[in-house]
Write a structure and sequence with these properties.
The chain is α+β, with helices and mostly antiparallel strands. It is built from 8 helices and 12 strands. The strands form 3 sheets. Strands 3-2-1-5-8 form a 5-stranded mixed β-sheet, with no helix packed on it. The radius of gyration is 26 Å and the shape is elongated. The protein starts with 11 loop residues before the first helix and ends with a helix.
Length: 335
Amino acid sequence: MQRAFQPLMPFQFPVALLAAVPLLAYGDAQSALDPKGQNAARIAETSWVLFAGGGIIFATVMILSAAALFGPAGLRSAIGRHAMIVGGGILFPLVVLSALLIHTFLSASAIMRADAPPALRIQVAGELWWWRVSYLGDNGSTALETANEIRIPAGRPVEFVLISDNVIHSFWVPNLAGKIDMIPGHVNRLRVRADAPGVFRGQCAEYCGAQHANMAFHVVAQAPADYDAWFAAQTKPAQEPRDAVLQTGKRLFLNACSQCHAIRGTPAAGTLGPDLTHVGSRLSVGAGMLPNNAGTFGGWIAGNQHIKPGNRMPAFGGLSGEELRALAAYMESLQ
């Protein structure tokens, strides 16, 4: 038999508030109300205007309702007059809601209007369940491919070219811009500009399957000089391992992983999974599932189906402890 819903008792409210504190502390990392870019600032401004307008309307209605129910007879009679009903019930909503609608349209138009050509174009493809990131050259060809992490120069306009070849995803970095769908067979574009260097968490905002909630990514805005140095380093092939442990890890990778993953500078050229040429320099493992270090690499390789059930990578539980440590160390060394 189902239990009826029971509201929180008074002494439980402080406990609930304390439980929410970690969420509030994390909110700035993925919050549309903490804008760090021009488009996000316009969205936040529109949100606050709508919150304020809705709050004023709600407060006005409540005050009038209280006056009509509990006010003196003269006030109640005034509220019930024909002019008050027409003014409050028709003219007031018409004027206020029209003003809010016009403000919203003007903000949306400003967001869609491109002020300058993009300094950089990045194609992002929604996969199941990770993000394929391709930095495009002037001719539209791929100059660099990474995964689950997007680096951009702060202060410069960047255009994201958003695609999917499986299901509908939705690309959303709340601190930088609004969400936009990634629809199979269709190309959508999103223009962003980060005001200053920082790390901003993104998320798929459209249910796309079992691991939709665990399909995260990071946008890292860097000073232009730092971005240029990062890009130059990323275009280089992976360094050849120099010690025996890393050489063993490379051999294991080529035997077990090269069918799905690529590491430039080696025979590994798979395209089903993320490009791992410089995976050791990324912030996370498994599209935001784990922090990036040798331990989490080992856990992901051996037990990814427990960490992220249903993803398309098989778990390699048959590796010995020594082999697993060597392979994880090699992955971490790919800086």
